[in-house]
Amino acid sequence: xxxxxxxxxxxxxxxxxxxxxxxxxxxxxxxxxxxxxxxxxxxxxxxxxxxxxxxxxxxxxxxxxxxxxxxxxxxxxxxxxxxxxxxxxxxxxxxxxxxxxxxxxxxxxxxxxxxxxxxxxxxxxxxxxxxxxxxxxxxxxxxxxxxxxxxxxxxxxxxxxxxxxxxxxxxxxxxxxxxxxxxxxxxxxxxxxxxxxxxxxxxxxxxxxxxxxxxxxxxxxxxxxx
Amino acid sequence: xxxxxxxxxxxxxxxxxxxxxxxxxxxxxxxxxxxxxxxxxxxxxxxxxxxxxxxxxxxxxxxxxxxxxxxxxxxxxxxxxxxxxxxxxxxxxxxxxxxxxxxxxxxxxxxxxxxxxxxxxxxxxxxxxxxxxxxxxxxxxxxxxxxxxxxxxxxxxxxxxxxxxxxxxxxxxxxxxxxxxxxxxxxxxxxxxxxxxxxxxxxxxxxxxxxxxxxxxxxxxxxxxxxxxxxxxxxxxxxxxxxxxxxxxxxxxxxxxxxxxxxxxxxxxxxxxxxxxxxxxxxxxxxxxxxxxxxxxxxxxxxxxxxxxxxxxxxxxxxxxxxxxxxxxxxxxxxxxxxxxxxxxxxxxxxxxxxxxxxxxxxxxxxxxxxxxxxxxxxxxxxxxxxxxxxxxxxxxxxxxxxxxxxxxxxxxxxxxxxxxxxxxxxxxxxxxxxxxxxxxxxxxxxxxxxxxxxxxxxxxxxxxxxxxxxxxxxxxxxxxxxxxxxxxxxx
Lengths: 226, 492
Fold this sequence. Notes:
The complex is a heterodimer.
Chain A: H1 8-30, H2 34-59, H3 63-90, H4 102-127, H5 133-154, H6 158-179, H7 185-213
Helix pairs in contact in A: 1-2, 1-5, 2-3, 2-6, 3-7, 4-5, 5-6, 6-7
Chain B: H1 2-23, H2 26-50, E1 56-58, E2 63-65, H3 67-93, H4 100-119, H5 123-141, H6 147-182, H7 190-196, H8 202-220, H9 228-235, H10 238-265, H11 269-292, H12 297-318, H13 320-352, H14 363-366, H15 368-381, H16 388-402, H17 406-432, H18 438-443, H19 452-470, H20 474-488
Antiparallel strand pairs in B: 1-2
Helix pairs in contact in B: 1-2, 1-4, 2-3, 2-4, 3-4, 3-10, 3-13, 3-19, 4-5, 4-10, 5-6, 5-10, 6-8, 6-9, 7-10, 8-10, 8-11, 9-10, 9-12, 10-11, 10-12, 10-13, 11-12, 11-17, 12-13, 12-16, 13-15, 13-16, 13-19, 13-20, 15-17, 15-19, 16-17, 16-19
């Protein structure tokens, strides 16, 4: 287990990056402008790429450098570009109908982090890893999951939902770098490619939404009930 | 030999998919898709038989043909075959000729991804295969491009992607718990996980299993994660509804079953089973409530799928040789029977021009043959004897009583009776309800003539369901015992 015996410096660098990406998730949660989501998402992906590289450096996993480059390219550039193209085509700048004000969403998100911490703490204790960066990584992994779900629930623009899904995946990727740095290369690369296809599919589907439903707000999707 | 058959089984739909994309002709697409489905069926049958002597490993252990996987392959091949025959007749009635090649390309691609998910020997690759089934089938759900079907497609892709991202988290955590035993880098095959499970940390296994269960449970349509299912099943073209219900749900159930056997090996089986049984009971309850008060004909079938996935969850959750045998028998019966029901619903929808049960009256007088087949199917799907689902449900009930889940078995029994009454009551109205005789001639709109392509697969589905109801082949029983054995004992 890498996280159990790290030098204090490496441990603090990892913690810093993990916290930074959690903060960026909160930036997405607290903003109502679609462009801000996108920038925060891209920044978060770059942080994760840097994290991959530093885990590769301190943990001696050279293949993680490749993952870092691919993460930066795919998640940091290509995905935001694809989403940006969709935004530009749709002419939607912000959320219009909010179930939850961004400020209240932040509070709910903070509660989610507390819950994740409780779970991670318990798991960490039973594994004998209490106080290591593994607990922090697990906390952030679970809380980004919850924040992603929160974004999916309280946001209605189709694009916010796509970004919410991407946050879900970012959380997993982030945690995986620290918890399971030895995960086979093939799996990680395939998952990266898979994500590209997902976003491409979303892009096509959003077009259909515009063409056939006439709106990109999922609030107007209420024909099918019962 | 096994490897060659496996290769042919995968290459057939892959070729059909690619060729349809290149040629772009509706007629060509439907033919090559039909051929591909027949090839898949012809290869799947011997593969299922041979799987008893396996497991067979290929491609550096990334691909495996094992007993539970082979059974899902067989169910998928059956539904793919039936749906391919049916779609020749049904899709011509939709009047989308110029886009039809795309339908067939995606159709064979969809079958391909489900078959792939069943032979993936790596939990990560299995996840990717399941994700791909979602992406391909989304466009099939939205194929008709009316607001309803686009809405269904959007809900489907968002809910299912969000759901199975939980399964990915669970998979990563499973990998993590395995890394304490097997070292930081290892192949996450099902066998490796199960063999390492006794030495894994129990808390972490429970956490990972619950995440995986909720994740793949979304894809299976277990309540309360089922909310995408009625929309997607009811808005997609009828052959796709059959594929979603009869093939895809089994493919996702396979993942739950495999992870359940890992949790069993980690001595967390009691909790793992209790949670799966609870999901099964809730699914039955939700299915029953929505079946009783349902207006849409295909939504009725969709909630029946929620119900039957609940029954499967109960069977696998009860476990033991009886529970697993019952669940596997139920899987194949449900695949056959639900295909029949969706085909019938598609025919009736085309003929009456409505999805509402209230608009459908006098099925019997308008379409005697298809009406009789559909009614027999309705009796079968509610678990009436002498059809296969009666036998499999009885076996699952017995497993419940034997394995200390008597409460769940009682609840299941009551809910099955409620569903029986509620489901058949809708059919009573459609066949014998008021206005049954006046309708067809008075309104002057004669139903469209159904081609043999639309009727033949209903026969092909009903006859085996009936045969399985009166005769449970001994060889099949022995096969199920072998599957149960493979799922409960660790292999070296």
